[in-house]
Amino acid sequence: MDYSKLITRNMPATVTTPEGAAADTDYVFSVTYTDPDTMPTAGIAEAVRIAMATEGQDLSRYPPPQGHPGLREYIADNLRSNRGANVPVDRIFLSAGAGGAIDTILEAFIDAGDTVLVEDFSYLGTLGMFMRRRANVVHVPTDDNGMDTDALEATIRDLARRGIQPKMIYTISVYQNPMGMTLSAERRNHMVEISQKYGVPIFENESYADFRIDGDPLPPAMTGIDDQGSVIYTSAYTKLLGCGLRLGYGVVPEALLETMRAFRFGTSPSHLAAQAVYGFLRDHSDSHMEAVSESLKSKRDAMLAALGEHFPPSCEWTSPKGGMIIWGRLPEGTDTWATLDAAVEAGVKYNPGPVFRADRTGRNYIRLTYSYHNPDEIRDGIGVLANVFERAGTFSDA
Ligand SMILES: Cc1ncc(COP(=O)(O)O)c(C=O)c1O
Q: Which of 123, 147, 245 to mutate to test the pocket of ligand 1 (most atoms within 8 A of CB)?
């Protein structure tokens, strides 16, 4: 069969990624997996058993387009009590992970050539979705308090002068991926103000809001600050309860509901997964989050200690207050993209900085994740990684 004339003429743009990213390695510091040491397998098994006994018959039908009503109620309660956002249940839709909600929102917004604004470095999954759709991704300067909102406003004004109206401000406002910081309260207010003033919606991704380890409590979500329907929101239970459960959600402003209905709210996740997640969270949410936080703390501390021990002071590391990512800056001239092959060969993988930028710059940056391995493995794996960079000559000036 010759498929060349049959397949769509709208193939996605090619997005280059380093080959080693897909390799199997002993040490995986490249994915924000659910912490396997706190995976609540027994609790989820029990939640499934109860769900089958009480609402198992529901699986004979297709789920409602926006997903399990009980879980959506739970999400609305959680957003109210933990994120300061009063969101009616009918604006929430369940999705196949946060990634599913993001893909559906971008489907509704992004045409080739559209401009979007993101942090200095941004989550590679969403970046890939923008790039495959041929969007023009503009990175906005970002510091320890998150996206610099003065620079954001200046960028929007500059684009306007050139007749360009961005489609959205995409931000990972909590324990940012990959840079680790949280957008400050002051900047949240400013970003909402800018969004309303220039008519550019904010797409707020709070995938890591359940992963506070220490430090200050999180400022409220922008979807709660905004009063003009300017914020679209997404988060997920993937990182908390199992990436394989594929359970996330999106929240859209009232004015977008008709549009999202036309897109059928994307592909709904498994209703069985939604029943299980709902049952589990209803009974165990607080204790589970505490256990995860404690486990991640020991893993984060083990990784920071190992980095301090094995890497020279010329390498700088963030000290995240939550989430599962450490962001590093290695000496100028280091090429983390090129070194990945040698790292994979040695049995360890990470994410090179350029995968978080549309222009693939930032070669001396590196992202390490600490959720997957136990502290002993983390110590060993970081030792292996340091040897790789040592051999690559990264530390020669240290
Ligand atoms: C910021 C952010 N958003 C979305 C996702 C996608 O997660 P999932 O679709 O598994 O919920 C990730 C995964 O790493 C992420 O870091």
A: 123
CB 222 within 8 A of CB 188: yes
Are 119 and 180 in contact by the 8 Å Cβ rule? The answer is no
CA of residue 337 to ligand 1 center, whole Å: 22
DSSP state of 31: -
Helix locations, 311-369, DSSP H = 336-346
pLDDT tens string 229-282: 999 999 999 999 999 999 999 999 999 999 999 999 998 899 999 999 999 999
Ligand 1: which of 105, 172, 174, 177 to mutate, most ligand atoms within 8 Å of CB? 177
pTM beyond 0.90: the answer is: yes
Atom of ligand 1 nearest to the CA of 248: 11
321: DSSP letter: S
Residue-wise pLDDT tens digits, 46-89: 999 999 999 999 999 999 999 999 999 999 999 999 999 999 99
- Stretch (H or E) spanning 143: strand 142-143
Q: Look at residues 361, 363, 366 and name the one whose alpha carbon lies nearest to residue 385.
A: 366
Q: Please, what is the end-to-end C-alpha distance for the chain in angstroms?
A: 58
Q: Which residues line ligand 1 (CB under 6 A)?
A: 32, 97-99, 123, 125, 172, 177, 205, 207, 236, 238, 243, 248
Q: Would you report the helix, strand and coil content of the chain in percent, each value rounded to 5?
A: 45, 15, 40
Residue 396 has pLDDT above 90, yes or no: no
Q: Per-residue confidence at 398, pLDDT binned at 50, 70, 90?
A: low
Q: Name the pairing type of β-strands 92-96 and 247-251.
A: antiparallel
Q: Give the domains, in start order, of the chain with CATH numbers.
A: 19-40+287-391 (3.90.1150.10), 42-284 (3.40.640.10)
52 in helix, strand or coil?
A: helix
Spatial distance between the Cα atoms of 386 and 347, rounded to a whole number of angstroms = 12
pLDDT tens-digit map of 292-329: 999 999 999 999 999 999 999 999 999 999 999 999 99
- Beta-carbon contacts of 225 under 8 Å, excluding residues fewer than 6 positions away, are 84, 188, 189, 192, 231
Atom in ligand 1 nearest the alpha carbon of residue 32: 14
